[in-house]
Amino acid sequence: MEFGVGAVLEGKVTGITKFGAFVSFPDGKTGLVHISEIAYTYVNDIRDHLKEGQMVQVKVLGIDDNNRINLSIKKALDPPRPANSRQAAGGGKPNAPRSQQRGSYVPKQAVSKEPITFEDRLKQFMQASDSKMSELNRHIDKRGGSRRGRR
C-alpha angle with apex 63: 57 to 10, nearest 5 degrees? Predict the structure, then answer.
């Protein structure tokens, strides 16, 4: 068995924690699959995806100075491919304008035909963020300070 970074191997799930799953290999080595490396979808509970004793294919992501082995199940698999590449970009209706596609934030003034640059979007985000923070601070000041120390 070739063991090194980038290798795809088969191992057995020997333990499950709230942050990941431990996978053992026939040569006695054990590695950890972090919760973020289990599936391409959101993983709330690892036990919904894996069971102890289950055989899984994993990809070796890295081995640190303490010989801890970082593994990935999702990178050992091919990434999921959407049926329509246009849907993948916006996640919504394939022929709808970007402003109507789910999962894509486009400010109202950006719906014009002129493309918006990253810098413009970042500037708009920062302005909106600053506005929300000042509103939050005003709300906290009205209530007489922060909630720290109160019980």
Answer: 15
